[in-house]
Design the sequence.
């Protein structure tokens, strides 16, 4: 590893630790030449996963787009950021574990809606309204009718 201070290639690892979700390793290093310390991070290199949009366009998978959509759906709801981050991590893990490297946006959207429905029904309906492109109030009513009666009375 090249020292960012003097450019020397010879360094030694002083300490290594995994991050919380075990997806990267933080290494504390010391340069053998100038003796300064610096930190590096080691990540597994994933092949780029592509998402096929409804109109046929392809774009690189971006977990931040999923995260921001979930944050909007859960706005002013009793849903923690940890719960949102957990869903994002689960979706990312689901698609990166498969050998195939292309997924439809429909596949991702349906998985997200399943997880949201369990987490918070209001956030689910908000997300579904954008994802399924609700046109008017009847679309909302139709979606709400899918919930069990005992839950609707509460």
Sequence:
């Amino acid at each position: 590893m090249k020292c960012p201070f003097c450019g020397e290639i010879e360094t030694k690892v002083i300490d290594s630790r995994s991050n919380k979700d075990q997806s990267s390793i933080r290494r504390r290093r010391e340069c053998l030449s100038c003796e300064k310390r610096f930190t590096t991070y080691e990540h597994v290199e994933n092949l780029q996963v592509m998402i096929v949009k409804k109109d046929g366009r392809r774009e690189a998978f971006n977990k931040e787009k999923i995260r921001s959509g979930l944050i909007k759906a859960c706005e002013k709801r009793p849903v923690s950021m940890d719960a949102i981050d957990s869903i994002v991590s689960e979706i990312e893990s689901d698609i990166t574990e498969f050998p195939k490297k292309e997924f439809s946006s429909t596949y991702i959207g349906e998985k997200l809606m399943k997880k949201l429905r369990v987490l918070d029904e209001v956030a689910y309906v908000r997300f579904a309204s954008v994802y399924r492109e609700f046109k008017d109030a009847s679309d909302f009513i139709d979606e709400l009718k899918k919930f069990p009666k005992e839950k609707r009375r509460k």
Notes: The radius of gyration is 22 Å. The chain has a mean pLDDT of 85. Strands lie at 11-18, 24-31, 37-43, 50-52, 58-60, 102-104. The longest helix spans residues 81-97.
